[in-house]
Design a protein that fits this description.
With 127 residues, the chain is mainly β. Helix content is 0%, strand content 74%. The chain has no helices and 7 strands. It has a 7-stranded antiparallel beta sheet, with no helix packed on it. It starts with a strand and ends with a strand.
Length: 127
């Protein structure tokens, strides 16, 4: 069921765009103190950084991303990390674009270490 508790969260974001280059970074922290005294307090943290460059202005963009999440910073079995490499071809701006994304995600959990790799190719049309 649902457990009640006190939550304190904080986030920070940064975004820079200049001459075809983009950089964004985000981070968060969380502290949870459950009302149930049998359940211990915990803190989580995470962050992501992303950088991109317009290889051909308004037509072709390459982006790389890395992110990490720690559900409980004191428990190494609750961490996740991953990276993406994305190539986007803009046929008519954001109204018609094709995106190719390769992703690699790693998880550590009670079940053991896991890794997921994926390749996504999608075309988006907006009417």
């Amino acid at each position: 069921g649902h457990r009640r508790g006190d939550w304190v969260t904080a986030t920070a974001d940064l975004q820079i765009q200049q001459r075809g280059f983009t950089l964004s970074a985000a981070g968060f922290g969380r502290s949870v103190t459950p009302e149930d005294a049998r359940v211990g307090s915990y803190e989580g943290a995470g962050g992501e950084i992303s950088g991109g460059y317009a290889l051909v202005a308004n037509r072709l963009e390459l982006v790389g991303r890395y992110g990490q999440l720690r559900w409980d910073v004191d428990d190494p079995d609750t961490r996740e990390a991953g990276w993406d490499l994305v190539l986007t071809l803009y046929h008519r701006g954001h109204a018609w674009k094709t995106r190719m994304q390769y992703s690699n995600r790693r998880r550590v959990a009670e079940q053991g270490l896991g890794s997921d790799r994926s390749l996504i190719v999608e075309t988006q049309l907006l009417f």
